[in-house]
Inverse folding.
């Protein structure tokens, strides 16, 4: 009797047309669900990124700023150091010149 | 093969293929059940479509720790009963006018046609709940406990429903007498 009942109740088709009909009717609902799911996925991802990455972004910006500013701060130091040696050179040169002149004049 | 729960999760996210796979997997069982309740292939397919759409609509309520089949069958049962009641309100006399079987009956096999006719008449004579219970038990292989969960009735009531439905169908098939049935009507 079970087989008979099953045969009596079973659809006569393979179900393809039925599935297509249901999917057609469900197209709008599926689209709405996809959109909502995408929104749910993108939303938390952005929030996580914002919460997690913000200190790193700030640290990276500060680091970059320091890296750019440091050589600029260090540049005047060699210039200041160069001045005495230049003076010394000039003094040295003038001493040498005076010596040459004195020798020449002395002779 | 991907499990029902995984497919349900994907369908909930709007995955057409996942929902299509669930339809493919359960369409025959759902259509048999709705056919048992409505007694008509066209109404059965309408109710089955409504059931799948309703299932998609409330798929968040499905508990993935439990089997998907009974959950869907409950929705299908309700969809079929709702459709029968809507139709009854619209066309109060439709059940008497309509032929019990609209599906293709093999014209060449008169005996098979007669048995189908007997079965259809016997099924139609059963209360809705008994039709669902016997279909789920004998055709779909659900347990009494599962059917009790589907119909939200005690397990003992399901046993009783299945027993009475089987007896009625057996009587109808074994000792069918069209003349006597007409008299009884």
């Amino acid at each position: 009797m079970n087989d008979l009942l099953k045969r009596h109740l079973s659809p006569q088709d393979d179900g393809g047309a039925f599935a297509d009909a249901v999917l057609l009717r469900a197209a709008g609902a599926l689209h709405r669900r996809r959109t909502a799911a995408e929104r749910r996925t993108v939303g938390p991802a952005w929030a996580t990124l914002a919460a997690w990455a913000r200190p790193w972004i700030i640290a990276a910006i500060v680091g970059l700023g320091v890296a750019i500013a440091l050589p600029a701060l260090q540049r005047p130091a060699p210039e200041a150091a160069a001045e005495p040696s230049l003076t010394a050179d000039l003094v040295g040169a003038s001493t040498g010149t005076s010596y040459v002149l004195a020798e020449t004049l002395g002779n | 093969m991907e499990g029902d729960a995984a497919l349900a999760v994907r369908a909930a996210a709007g995955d057409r293929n996942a929902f299509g796979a669930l339809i493919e997997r359960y369409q025959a069982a759902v259509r048999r059940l709705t056919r048992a309740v409505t007694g008509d292939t066209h109404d059965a397919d309408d109710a089955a479509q409504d059931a799948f759409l309703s299932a998609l609509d409330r798929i968040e309520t499905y508990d993935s720790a439990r089997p998907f089949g009974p959950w869907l069958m409950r929705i299908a049962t309700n969809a079929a009963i709702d459709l029968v009641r809507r139709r009854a309100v619209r066309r109060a006399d439709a059940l008497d006018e309509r032929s019990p079987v609209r599906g293709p009956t093999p014209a060449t096999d008169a005996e098979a046609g007669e048995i189908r006719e007997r079965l259809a008449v016997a099924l139609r004579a059963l209360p809705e709940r008994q039709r669902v219970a016997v279909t789920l038990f004998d055709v779909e292989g659900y347990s009494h406990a599962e059917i009790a969960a589907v119909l939200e009735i005690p397990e003992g009531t399901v046993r009783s429903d299945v027993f009475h439905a089987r007896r009625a169908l057996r009587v109808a098939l074994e000792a069918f007498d069209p003349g006597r049935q007409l008299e009884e009507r």
